[in-house]
């Protein structure tokens, strides 16, 4: 036990086990989850420049589009490559994926606070781009967005094949099976894929000041890679840890 005192609180136990910094991290995370992340109107000019910089770096970039499918290699740390390969010519059903994976919906919206995503209202009403600049923005990110969808839909097909092998007794079109696939898909995404939400961002990346935003621009992928390596190293001595670490390193 961490403490013999029956009056010990969760806060004190966290501090005793992991230190003051862990307690501060959790407090900040809970604040952010409960609406504490808000725009500062004083930084609107800087926010605009950061947004335009991000759009300029991504828009109409062939290299950005082509690198989207490479994220499947990270997924192979958690799902056998044979299922990824077997799904190459399978139907990629994005609509089905978004019905059974909330993470895919977050991915579709392009938020949290990426400066280029759609607002909740725009997404709910399926608002189409209006005006020249909105249409230009939509056209310039069309290819990366589509390849991103194809990649995640490919992973969805791979998960369905994996779960079909693990659960041959289940109806492959049934709600129970697809819900199970959704849980497995979310688990793989949380550990190996990039999407923008409060829960998938580091403390610094959630910062609203201009310096934090500029410093962490396009750092979601490197942050994920570091987390994968760290977790693999931390679990190296556990049962199966060496195999998992090898997959992550590969």
Can you put this structure into words, describing what you see?
This protein is mostly helical and 250 residues long. The chain has helices at 10-18, 20-36, 44-58, 62-66, 71-75, 81-86, 94-100, 102-109, 120-124, 131-140, 142-166, 175-192, 210-215, 220-234, 241-249.
Topology as a string of helices (H) and strands (E): HHHHHHHHHHHHHHH
Structural class: mainly alpha
Biggest beta sheet attributes:
none
Whole-angstrom Rg: 20 Å
- What share of residues are in beta strands? under 5%
The geometry reads as globular
Number of helices: 15
Oligomer: single chain
Percent of residues in helices comes to 55-70%
Overview in brief:
The protein contains 15 helices and no strands.
Descriptive keywords:
250 residues; 15 helices; globular
Secondary-structure topology with pairs:
Elements (H helix, E strand, L loop, with lengths): L9 H9 L1 H17 L7 H15 L3 H5 L4 H5 L5 H6 L7 H7 L1 H8 L10 H5 L6 H10 L1 H25 L8 H18 L17 H6 L4 H15 L6 H9 L1
């Amino acid at each position: 036990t961490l403490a013999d005192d029956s009056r010990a609180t969760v806060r004190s136990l966290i501090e005793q086990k992991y230190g003051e910094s862990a307690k501060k991290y959790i407090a900040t995370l809970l604040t952010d989850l409960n609406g504490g992340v808000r725009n500062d109107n004083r930084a609107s000019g800087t926010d605009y420049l950061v947004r335009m910089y991000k759009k300029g770096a991504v828009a109409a970039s062939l290299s950005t589009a082509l690198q989207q499918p490479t994220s499947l290699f990270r997924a192979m740390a958690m799902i056998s490559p044979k299922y990824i390969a077997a799904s190459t010519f399978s139907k990629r059903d994005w609509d089905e994926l978004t019905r059974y994976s909330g993470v895919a919906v977050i991915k579709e919206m392009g938020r949290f606070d990426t400066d280029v995503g759609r607002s909740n209202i725009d997404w709910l009403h399926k608002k189409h781009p209006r005006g020249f600049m909105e249409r230009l923005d939509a056209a310039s990110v069309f290819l990366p967005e589509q390849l991103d969808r194809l990649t995640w839909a490919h992973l969805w097909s791979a998960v369905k094949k994996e779960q079909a092998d693990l659960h041959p007794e289940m109806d492959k079109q049934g709600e129970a099976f697809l819900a199970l696939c959704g849980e497995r898909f979310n688990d793989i995404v949380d550990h190996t894929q990039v999407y923008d939400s409060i829960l998938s961002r580091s403390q610094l990346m959630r910062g609203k000041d201009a310096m934090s935003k500029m410093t962490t621009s396009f750092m979601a992928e490197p942050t994920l890679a570091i987390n994968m390596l760290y977790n693999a190293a931390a679990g190296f001595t556990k049962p199966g840890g060496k195999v998992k670490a090898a997959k992550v390193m590969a």
